[in-house]
Design a protein that fits this description.
This protein is of the alpha/beta class. It is built from 24 helices and 28 strands.
């Protein structure tokens, strides 16, 4: 595979084209390297990753993001950074440090003073207005970047990466939205790129001619009135001429209202941004964002759209991604879902980065697979993600595992979550875990419900109840009417829904049901392109037909739609629903359901062919009390304890599996 061909980046040779981009993990202690960071990156380094970029590493107090980000602003940081680079090199990977300055994205409460930027333009990301850097301060900032680069070199990093993406300090100088200066650092594009060029030159002068310098850029800012892919074609050759050896191309700013990494973004959606840069520079270019599959990564390289591929959350999710791909074990790869629940959401919640699909993330040392002291007979009741994960880990630890699932389908509620096209990536985890059941030889019994009699017959040492939940049916007059259906049955494709539908409940399941009901218009996008290309329909007519879906209204009694949806995904789901014409009513409580629709408490009447109930989940745990005393150890995980998300089910499963 071309993916595993070596490539030269100025003074170093990477053993392959797989790069783990810098991502904030939240594992640092007051900016210093911890054993947790070393364990995390060591696990990836020993599994065939070519280059690991660490960071962001803040270069000065004004550029600091938060205490749990890595610092490289003083020589005191070199000791810890050296331990990290040593561990990565011992694993067989090269590594680089990302030089970070948040600019107006800094919080005054964190840095203890007013944030700085090119100009005093308020940030919608922080809500704060920065002050403009003086010329003297600009020169000092450039010097700080260079000094940080030298520290990286002294600490053993093989390269440095200058971040000029996502709306941080350098893009704030580049963009006309945030650069209103009237001196030599503002005005036309040539003047606005001056700061970035001088940063590159300062770093090059400090680290020497043989040291690789990478730049991470936004291939398009995706900010109305900001820089587009066209301006990028103008300034990347200038940066290359100044001394950049490789471009790492992503998209957007943190303030952009265009999704970048959520699961509704098509796989490989932003590869074209890297291709756009590759057309105008003569240095290697890396494509990023939503590349999770080895075959897609390989095709990107074969088509010469990029020279390397960035696998960020793909390598968080499965540290063995590269090794499995190299060995052709594609079905064994635990592919990133793009759910954001453990990674991006945790960043905003100021929590360490974890992963829905992989409970060992951030616990690499603690969750190393170790054979159990005593082999036990383990019975698992329920084949959802929690049940399958506890089965997988318990089997790897040497236990005798049997899993019972009362239906004929594994995966539980994840199958429902994956029903809308925009959420289908959830199926990745179901497929991975089902394959693990076969690969590990775990005995799975389908279509049989576990009773106390079954447990008595099997005589297990351990019983783990993972029976999940069931849909809550509210006590609303008319809820048992012929035009009323349950959202779970809709998402499972078991019931028909009319052209005009009302979804009662605007939580996660209600919103996902709204997506599902509006997935298909009169024609599919594929049909649209065919009909336009052959002149049957004009583009606007075809587009209108593709958007012509059911008439759907979601009714939510709270004042916030999608309140239980993950923070960094919620806005993308609500925006998609709005684009599809779904009406979303908040502070609206259903008083009764009739054969013509629903009546709200305020007296409003909403007509519909079908009323879909999506008001929540209750634990499916009746069997728990019946099992008391039937096995030496009894545990409950997931929704049968309390309705939550798959994240909690998988993590509770791993905890129990490592305990028994």
């Amino acid at each position: 595979m071309k993916l595993f061909e070596p490539i030269q980046i100025r003074g170093i040779e990477l053993k392959n084209r797989i790069v783990m981009p810098a991502m904030h993990l939240g594992y640092a202690d007051q900016g210093y390297i911890t054993q947790q960071i070393i364990d995390f990156y060591s696990e990836r380094a020993k599994n065939e990753v070519g280059l690991i970029l660490i960071g962001g590493c803040w270069t000065e107090i004004l550029g600091k993001g938060m205490d749990t980000m890595i610092r490289i602003d003083s020589d005191e940081a070199i000791i810890g950074l050296s331990k990290l680079t040593k561990a990565i090199h011992e694993g067989g990977a090269n590594c680089g440090a990302q030089l970070y300055h948040s600019g107006r994205y800094a919080f005054s409460i964190v840095i203890g003073q007013t944030p700085v930027s090119a100009s005093a333009v308020q940030s919608s990301f922080t809500g704060e207005t920065p002050r403009a850097l003086t010329i003297e301060e600009i020169k000092q900032t450039e010097k700080n970047y260079a000094e940080a680069a030298l520290r990286a070199k002294k600490a053993g990093f093989d390269a440095v990466e200058l971040i000029a993406s996502a709306g941080y300090l350098i893009p704030q100088f580049l963009s006309p939205l945030t650069n209103k200066r009237d001196d030599e650092y503002g005005g036309d594009l040539k003047s606005r790129m001056r700061f970035g060029v001088e940063c590159v030159q300062a770093i090059r002068d400090k680290v020497g001619d043989d040291y690789p310098l990478i730049m991470r850029i936004s291939g398009d800012d995706m900010m109305p009135g900001g820089n587009t892919y066209q301006e990028v074609r103008e300034y990347t050759p200038v940066f290359a001429e100044a001394g950049v050896d490789m471009f790492n191309v992503t998209g957007g700013w943190h303030e952009s209202r265009v999704p970048q990494i959520t699961m509704n973004v098509p796989r490989g959606n932003y590869v074209w941004l890297a291709e756009n840069v590759k057309e105008v520079v003569n240095v290697p270019v890396m494509a990023c964002n939503r590349i999770t599959d080895p075959l897609l990564a390989e095709q990107v390289l074969l088509d010469a759209k990029a020279d390397l591929v960035g696998l960020g959350r793909a390598l968080i999710c499965d540290p063995e991604w590269a090794r499995k791909a190299k060995e052709g074990r594609f079905k064994e790869i635990r592919q990133c879902l793009g759910c954001n629940q453990g990674c991006f959401d945790h960043v905003f919640l100021l929590k360490p980065v974890e992963c829905l699909s992989n409970a060992a993330v951030s616990r690499e040392a603690e969750y190393q697979i170790k054979l159990a002291d005593k082999r036990k007979k383990v019975l698992i009741i329920g084949g959802g993600p929690g049940g399958m994960e506890v089965a997988r880990v318990a089997k790897l630890r040497g236990h005798d595992v049997t899993l019972y699932e009362k239906t004929y389908t594994m995966g539980g509620q994840l199958n429902l979550a994956a029903a809308p096209q925009d959420r289908r990536e959830f199926k990745n985890l179901v497929d991975y875990l089902c394959y693990q059941m076969d690969l590990l030889g775990i005995k799975v019994v389908l279509g049989k419900e576990v009773t106390p009699a079954v447990v008595k017959e099997l005589k297990p040492d351990v019983v783990i109840v993972a029976t999940g939940g069931r849909p809550l049916v509210p006590n609303i007059p008319g809820v048992d009417g012929p035009n009323v259906v349950i959202s779970w049955n809709v998402l499972a494709g078991k019931v028909a829904v009319g052209k005009k539908a009302i979804v009662v409940g605007g939580g996660g399941v209600g919103c996902e049901t709204g997506l599902y009901l509006t997935d298909h218009g009169s024609i599919t996008p594929e049909q649209m392109l065919f009909l336009v290309n052959f002149g049957v329909l004009d583009l606007q007519t075809a587009f209108d037909m593709a958007r012509k879906t059911r008439d759907v209204t979601i009714v939510e009694m709270l004042d916030r739609m999608g309140a239980d949806i993950s923070r960094t995904c919620r806005w993308t789901i609500l925006k998609t629903l709005a684009m599809r014409g779904v009406q979303m009513l908040t502070n609206a409580k259903v008083a009764k359901i009739t054969d013509k629709g629903v009546v709200l408490e305020n007296g409003d009447v909403l007509e519909a062919d079908t009323v879909v109930i999506a008001v929540g989940t209750v634990p499916n745990n009746e069997i728990v009390d019946q099992l008391e005393g039937l096995a030496p150890e009894l545990y409950c995980i997931g929704d049968c304890v309390e309705p939550r998300k798959a994240f909690e089910a998988v993590h509770e499963a791993a905890e129990i599996a490592h305990k028994i």
